[in-house]
């Protein structure tokens, strides 16, 4: 978008939750923003942009929630960021990049929230990562990959936040996963995409999954 909430805003904006009107916050992204995640006093943005918040930032940036300015945090990804998730002192990123935070990382990475450097966590996805969702000690990833975290995992996987290895949970979708979100309890993972089977169950485009076991929840 280039207008939203009654104001000119290029691809990223803050909207008053009561009125829907745009606030004065205006980072002014140069290209598409695909992902946002809020932590502390910053909103983390990912996409195709090369400038945002008044600074050069290649596809990933931290934006001050008060001013709309980019902070000094600068992981500098070499290709698109599709998904972001924050857990503790770490920002997790998924996309089509192969370098980020000063390291070679294939499509998924953990970035130190203070320094912008990639940590040693490295699941090494074989294809595009489109979605991330974190709960407890596990990060779920969805996308176009067929291997991740050192295991064969078709389009969706659970990754240990400490090791980067795939856990035993294996919902095994038959096509790409585009969106992931945990329920309020953190026990149910909701997935959306172009799949028609997941967790050995015929479910078209949307499914609920028991997060620990990877079993489908039928409604």
Explain what this protein looks like in three dimensions.
The chain has 219 residues and is mainly β. The protein has no helices and 23 strands. The strands form 9 sheets. Strands 18-19-22-23 form a 4-stranded antiparallel sheet, with no helix packed on it. A 3-stranded antiparallel sheet has the order 3-4-7, with no helix packed on it. A hairpin with a 2-residue loop joins strand 1 and strand 2. The N and C termini lie far apart (36 Å).
Number of helices: 0
Secondary structural class: mainly beta
Report the major sheet: 4 strands, antiparallel
Instruction: Let me know the average pLDDT.
Output: 96
Q: What is the chain-wise order of helices and strands?
A: EEEEEEEEEEEEEEEEEEEEEEE
Helix content: under 10%
Number of strands: 23
Compact summary:
This protein has 219 residues and is mostly beta strands. It has no helices and 23 strands.
Detail the topology: elements first, then pairings.
Layout: E1 3-4, E2 7-8, E3 33-39, E4 42-47, E5 51-52, E6 55-56, E7 60-64, E8 81-87, E9 90-95, E10 99-100, E11 103-104, E12 108-112, E13 129-135, E14 138-143, E15 147-148, E16 151-152, E17 156-160, E18 177-182, E19 188-193, E20 197-198, E21 201-202, E22 206-210, E23 216-217
Antiparallel strand pairs: 1-2, 3-4, 4-7, 5-6, 8-9, 9-12, 10-11, 13-14, 14-17, 15-16, 18-19, 19-22, 20-21, 22-23
For the structure shown, list the relevant keywords:
219 residues, mainly beta, four-stranded antiparallel beta sheet, three-stranded antiparallel beta sheet, 23 strands, globular
């Amino acid at each position: 978008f280039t207008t939203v909430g009654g104001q000119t805003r290029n691809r990223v904006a803050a909207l008053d939750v009561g009125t829907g009107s745009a606030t004065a916050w205006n980072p002014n992204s140069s290209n598409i923003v695909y992902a946002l995640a809020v932590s502390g006093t910053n909103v983390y943005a990912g996409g195709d942009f090369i400038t945002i918040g008044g600074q050069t930032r290649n596809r990933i940036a931290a934006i001050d929630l008060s001013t709309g300015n980019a902070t000094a945090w600068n992981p500098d990804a070499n290709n698109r960021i599709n998904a972001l998730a924050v857990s503790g002192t770490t920002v997790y990123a998924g996309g089509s990049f192969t370098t980020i935070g000063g390291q070679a990382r294939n499509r998924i990475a953990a970035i130190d929230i203070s320094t912008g450097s990639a940590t040693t966590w490295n699941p090494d996805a074989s294809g595009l990562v489109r979605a991330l969702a974190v709960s407890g000690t596990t990060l779920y990833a969805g996308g176009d990959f067929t291997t991740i975290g050192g295991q064969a995992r078709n389009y969706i996987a659970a990754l240990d936040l400490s090791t980067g290895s795939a856990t035993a949970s294996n919902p095994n979708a038959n096509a790409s996963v585009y969106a992931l979100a945990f329920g309020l309890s953190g026990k149910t993972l909701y997935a959306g995409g172009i799949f028609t089977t997941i967790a050995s169950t015929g479910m078209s485009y949307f499914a609920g999954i028991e997060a620990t076991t990877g079993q489908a929840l039928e409604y």
